[in-house]
Amino acid sequence: IQETISSAKNNLSEPKEYAAQATSYYEETTARIYMVYQDKLKNNNAFDFDDLLMQVVLLLKNTPSVLEKYQKRWQYILVDEYQDTNFAQYALISLLSEKHKNIFVVGDFDQSIYKWRGADFRNILNFEHEHPDCRVIVLEENYRSTQNILAAAAQVISKNLERKDKNLWTNNPTGAPIVLYEALNEKDEGKFIVSEIRKLIAEFKLRLSDFAVLYRTNAQSRAVEEAFLRVGLPYKVVGATKFYDRKEIKDLLAYLRIIHNPNDLLSLERIINVPPRGLRQPPTANQRPILKKLQAWENFNNLLDELRQENKALPLTGLLKLIIEKTKYEDYILGQENGEARLENIEEIFSVTQKFDALPPPDGLGAFLEEAALLQNSDEVETEKNLVNLMTIHCAKGLEFSAVFVVGCEEGIFPHSKSLLDKTQTEEERRLCYVGMTRAKNLLYLSFAEKRLFFGSLITNPPSRFLSEISENIVLVRHSSDKYLSGQEFCETPPEDYS
């Protein structure tokens, strides 16, 4: 339901408009929830992320004077990653650039992989038609990948129909052929990856962080993780619990938000009894006068009032430290599971808040909360740590690694089973494959398994159609029967020191 409401907002469909177009029980139910949800947001003096676009577009459409003001203020519009814009973003860009026609967009239609988030790559495909006087600069030189990797990726993406031709080239060396590995099963696939990483580290002095294992869905990481754990190969799963999603960080952010916005009931619900203070749920409007008489509630109200006053004078870091001191949050978190690690996370947040201490109070708090809201919705990769990177291909977009393993290249997995009967979705899967392949600078491995234990069932899928689209002359096919670390050796090989 949340995704449906988000999609409606991305299409600039307000609650009443969405309700009028509802034709099924699900849509009618969602429409009622949508209306209640918007009322709750209004009562809390809040927007969600989709409102930040929809409400702005509606304001500009319905208030010509406001539109004229911002058209005058922003006479030159620059947009990056234009292939990932949705309808609301497209409408906003069109409105702002309508008067002066000074618009510069950058994007690659072959890397549009966020349709499930509402992105419409037709925005970039139709740009020349909508702006017939525009100048198109095609960037065809690739500075990252070898000639073989670039050729393989180009051969795959060329099978898409909804795109424009481009001839990518590079001055980089020809490089090694693309390794196509046929595994017996998912365990064999994991063993092969471990073996190759060990070999490449020994022969070419690569670091663990030079490697990435990419997969279509997060569920595929299990077998790879087990293979890594068995030999002590250090790794990280990118996109797991992110910094701003950890309990202790979310608690402190809730305190800061309720100080910044006293009407933020969601934040109030989170911290009203954290640390425990004898309160359970925030009172309703008619209960609040009674509950205010209770000492615990009165103390809590007084604490928030005091912190709001301090926010007018203290820099952000000082305010956060005062919150921790006044609530005895440090003692509380040390009593939780993994308390020491959680305390380190709290200490790490200070390195973020210090960036905002130069702003005069209380401006620092507002600026920090804006950035934190954005960071909570981003995927961070800690490239400074020497660990093998495991992540979905979506998560890998924009990154690069010396050696990349794309696993599970089988029909029904990649391309995903949900896309097989839909040509549009299949083309998005092919774009996703193109993105995965072009993360590699020097070495690219594509693997599939004859059989795979997946979601508790043993499945047998044919190799992905994407593999057959690559020319044989740039591919080296390897099998489980080839000489590499055998299963027995694999189990008996002790962990190595990769530090």
Write structural notes for this entry.
By secondary structure, the protein is an alpha/beta fold. It is built from 23 helices and eleven strands. The strands form three sheets. The chain has a seven-stranded parallel beta sheet with strand order 5-6-4-7-8-3-11. Strands 1-2 form a two-stranded parallel ribbon. Helix 12 packs across helix 13. The longest helix is centred in the N-terminal third of the chain and has 19 residues. The relative contact order is 0.13. Its EC number is 5.6.2.4. It holds the Pfam family UvrD-helicase. Belongs to the helicase family. UvrD subfamily. InterPro entries: DExx_box_DNA_helicase_dom_sf, DNA_helicase_UvrD-like_C, DNA_helicase_UvrD/REP, P-loop_NTPase, UvrD-like_ATP-bd.
Concise overview:
Belongs to the helicase family. UvrD subfamily. This protein has 499 residues and is an alpha/beta fold.
CATH class of the largest domain: Alpha Beta
Mean pLDDT: 89
The description of the largest β-sheet is:
7 strands, parallel
Q: In angstroms, what separates the terminal alpha carbons?
A: 46 Å
What is the alpha-carbon Rg in Å? 27 Å
Q: State the domain count.
A: 3
Strand content: 5-15%
Strand order of the largest sheet: 5-6-4-7-8-3-11
Shape: globular
Task: Using the 3D structure, state the CATH architecture of the largest domain.
Answer: 3-Layer(aba) Sandwich
What structural category characterises the helix and strand content? alpha/beta
Contiguous runs where pLDDT drops below 50 for at least 5 residues? 485-495
Question: How many beta strands in the DSSP annotation?
Answer: 11
Q: Helicity, in percent?
A: 40-55%
